[in-house]
Design brief:
This protein is mostly helical. 56% of the residues lie in helices and 7% in strands. It has 3 domains: 63 residues, Double Stranded RNA Binding Domain, CATH 3.30.160; 47 residues; 123 residues, no CATH class. It has a 3-stranded antiparallel beta sheet with strand order 2-1-3. It has a 3-stranded antiparallel beta sheet with strand order 5-4-6. α4 packs antiparallel against α5. The structure holds zinc ion (ZN) (4 copies). Keywords: Coiled coil, Metal-binding, Zinc, Zinc-finger. InterPro entries: Znf_B-box (IPR000315). This is PML.
Length: 280
């Protein structure tokens, strides 16, 4: 029968089938709920009787024993072996106590155990209390650990946030710095290229002048004059060929370059050691 049985249920032990009383107690030895009248019969057999309301608060496993042969054995047959510090039933005695001599009846051994000076009980109560305190301390430690973890979590989040701000600032500065440097490089190149174009234009103008001169002489002058001029222009043109070659060598094409694209991956890899979050 379950211990949670409603107190209004009727006693199954009452002899009269018509006149059953309401159950009020629980007998551990018989594992049944009983009425106040039937209680006396169980008491007579040294059974453990407690109010129904208390039944749920008791560990049944420690109340019964030492043997399970409740039909033929009663507490009258229980003995206490001092050598082994064990209670046993003499009717179904374990062979371990066969040669034990320091043995007394359970009644003798139990005498005074409920008195407040009983070492057995006071020591047991103390040890139960201490152990429970130790367990409660473990709970406290676990809860403290949770508080610490929460603090650590926010600390690390703040650390990551600060690092990110630092990196943002650093990258902003870097972007400005690179931008300014690019502006300066471009300005240098622009000045140089303007100078180059100016120098090239001077050569072109000089060649245009020679072209015009030759054309004017062909249309307006004598063959003799044209011949002399053509020979001079020919010499100048030859000189200009070698000037052009030096120009070609001298003029270099500028090129701005930055990191190769795979460098971005390397930068990300560098940041990856930030992912090494550990739980110990
Ligand atoms: Zn009854
Ligand atoms: Zn009983
Ligand atoms: Zn027994
Ligand atoms: Zn023994």
């Amino acid at each position: 029968m379950p211990m949670t049985e409603s107190p209004k249920q009727l006693c199954g032990s009452c002899p009269s089938a018509e006149n059953k009383n309401t159950i009020e107690f629980w007998c551990f030895d018989c594992s049944e709920s009983i009425c106040i009248e039937c209680k006396e019969k169980h008491f007579g057999k040294f059974h453990v009787i407690i109010p129904m309301s208390e039944a749920g608060k008791v560990d049944k496993s420690v109340i019964t024993g030492p043997c399970t042969c409740t039909d033929k054995c009663s507490q009258n047959s229980y003995l206490h072996c001092k050598s082994h510090d064990k209670i046993y039933c003499k009717l179904c005695a374990p062979s371990i106590h066969k040669s034990c001599s320091d043995v007394q009846s359970i009644a003798n051994a139990a005498t005074g155990c409920q008195h407040r000076t009983s070492v057995l009980i006071t020591d047991l109560e103390l040890r139960l209390g201490n152990l429970k305190t130790n367990y409660l301390q473990l709970i406290e430690e676990q809860e403290l650990n949770l508080t610490d973890l929460n603090f650590q979590k926010y600390q690390i989040k703040a650390q990551v946030c600060d690092f990110r701000k630092d990196m943002n600032e650093y990258l902003n500065e870097l972007e400005d710095k690179i931008g300014n440097q690019l502006d300066r490089y471009y300005e240098q190149c622009r000045a140089q290229i303007s100078k180059n174009i100016q120098a090239i234009l001077e050569r072109c103008n000089m060649l245009s002048l020679l072209e015009n001169t030759l054309h004017l002489l062909i249309t307006n002058s004598s063959e003799c004059r044209t011949f002399i001029a053509a020979k001079n222009i020919d010499r100048k043109q030859c000189e200009e060929e070698s000037v052009f070659e030096t120009f070609e060598d001298f003029l270099k094409l500028f090129k701005l370059s930055f990191l190769k694209e795979e460098t971005n991956d390397i930068n990300k890899k560098f940041l990856r050691h930030w992912e090494r979050l550990s739980l110990k």
